[in-house]
Amino acid sequence: MFWRVVVASLAYRRGAVLLSIVAISISALTLLSVEHIRQQARQAFSQTVSGVDLIVGARGGDINLLLYSVFHLGSASRNMSYQSFDALQQSADVAWAIPLAMGDSHRGHRVVGTNANFFEHFRYGQKTPLQFQQGQAFKQTFEVVIGAQVARKFNYQVGDSLVISHGLGQHSFQQHEQHPFTVSGILAPTGTPVDKALYVSLAGLEAAHRPAGMALDAAIIPDSITATLIGLTSRLKTFQVQRRINEYRGEPLMAILPGVTLTQLWDSLNVMEATLRTIAGLIFAAALIGLSATLLASMRERRQELIIMRTLGARPSFIILLIQAEVMLIATTAIGIAILLLWTLLSAGQSVIMQWLGLAISSDFFTANVGLTLLGLVAASAMVALYPSYRAYRMSLVVS
Amino acid sequence: MITLSQLQLAYQQRPVLNISHWRVEPGERVLVHGPSGSGKSTLLHVLAGLLLPQQGRVEILGQTINHWSGRKRDAFRARHLGFIAQQLNLIPYLTVLDNVLLAAHLSQRQGLRHTIKAQAESLLAEVNLGGDVLQQPAHTLSLGQQQRVAIVRAMIHQPQIILADEPTSALDDANRDQFMQQLQRLCEQQNATLVMVSHDLSLMPAFSRVQALHELQAQENN
């Protein structure tokens, strides 16, 4: 009987109730989206690179080195010499070294000069190796391997020809048209910046900058590269090797631990994250306060019905629970709609987000954090209903 | 059945009720009349335990209810009293049947749900309400129909006492007569004591005792 009264009461005031549900749904959707995307972005960032013990580059900022070498964001202010890279890979403590040479692009996508070690040793996510969905790694000087997103965006197939440009901009006036590259392989999607990049050999990258007709040696090597990813023979030696690189006398170099620098990066983004969460929380609070205000405003018109209930013998707890139940039903319905909307949007938008942002967003957002957020939303709704419930109870006492 | 002793109730220093002694016997049908604002509704609310006097004793069915907690008075009212108000008697968004069943629910009347429902339908039929009307929201009924539902709602838990606060004031003559007949018949059937307050003296023939409120108040002086 109690729930019949609750449902009938809400149905009677359906106009205001529907508006409240819409307002709370939108605000809960915002809050859940911020929380989910924040977690997914964090996860995606942390899974971009895996199994790399050290990243080495010219001395500068730690975060900057991580950003340009792994996330392809920004650019290096200075390069490191190929000689230093060679010395590093010869070191007994280094199991493998991946050179990264950046500075060129193809239609807004980074072109990275590297070697076969990249396809053999680079890992992402839970130490997942790179896989080819078509073709194979480059073997010839003017062969290129392209990321999944580049292939999809420009509809490239193995065997297609493309030209790289000098610089990192979307449009470049200096195309290396004299040396077109042939697509030798297309990588499987990874949900990391690898999908948005093109990979050529160091020799190919160097050769592309040479004038047409000039003799090209297959063993051509560049003078410098941008950064190096290193895997050590033993992780116990990480700090020892890091110190040795930082004190390297050949040129000013620095080595960073990707995990540590990623944490620093998150720390620096904490304020932004907290701001986003606060704004989303405030939007939700505003919607709940709106609901509370609507309930309070309706109390005058409900006075008679509350008095009738009291004269029938309804206890104060019945009146209080009635208002609480109404608010909880509105809030849980709205939150349910928000969950359904978020799931639908994520399911439908996954491929679009992947295509445009290169971010793999899962539609499965039921994590412990989201669970806690949902509990918090329900608890906040119950809190907001306390005052209208108390007012209803007080009102029902004044019968004469 | 009902005894008021040395009862005093005032609003903001203004005396409203001052009754030294008043008694209603079981099965009586009492009409208390008086002009608007004389305290008739206040008297009923005191009898229902909704208002507490500043002084005196309110004894209902042998229990001094004005010394009880609000919670206990609520439970007592739900079980032993039926209340019919002037108008806007029903919860507007509940159906006719649910208005009656809510009263049964609040009285915590023992019985199977379908038995109580059958009894509610039977009582509603006795006041000429049945069929589709039972599933109509209360706010769609005419005033006369609403007051008839109010009788059934007051009776569903078989209370010993019915308190009625000017229930006919908004009804036309035909509806008033029909309402009074049905109320009397159901009170007789259930052997319930009826205390009604009204300013309408044309209702007098339906009652075994008729008293003006000022007479009750004056008893202190006699």
Largest sheet of chain B: 5 strands, parallel
Q: How many domains comprise the coordinates of chain A?
A: 2
Number of strands of chain B: 9
SSE class of chain B: alpha/beta
Topology of chain A as a string of helices (H) and strands (E): HHEHEHEEHEEEEHEEEEHEEHEHHH
Strand content of chain B: 15-25%
Share of residues in strands of chain A: 15-25%
Class from secondary-structure proportions of chain A:
alpha+beta
State the end-to-end distance of chain A. Answer: 27 Å
List the helices and strands and how they pair.
The complex is a heterodimer of chains A (about 400) and B (about 220).
Chain A (H helix, E strand, L loop, with lengths): L1 H11 L1 H33 L7 E5 L3 H9 L9 E2 H9 L3 E13 L2 E6 L1 H6 L1 E2 L3 E2 L2 E4 L7 E4 L1 H7 L6 E2 L2 E2 L14 E7 L10 E4 H7 L15 E2 L1 E6 L5 H9 L6 E4 L1 H54 L4 H42 L10 H30 L3
Parallel strand pairs in A: 4-12, 8-11
Antiparallel strand pairs in A: 1-14, 1-15, 2-13, 3-4, 3-10, 3-14, 5-6, 7-11, 8-12, 9-11
Helix pairs in contact in A: 1-10, 2-9, 2-10, 2-11, 9-10, 9-11, 10-11
Chain B lengths: L1 E10 L2 E11 L4 E5 L6 H8 L7 E6 L2 E2 L5 H11 E4 L11 H11 L6 H14 L16 H13 L5 E5 L7 H18 L2 E6 L10 E4 H6 L4
Parallel strand pairs in B: 3-8, 3-9, 6-7, 7-8
Antiparallel strand pairs in B: 1-2, 1-4, 4-5
Helix pairs in contact in B: 3-4, 3-5, 5-6
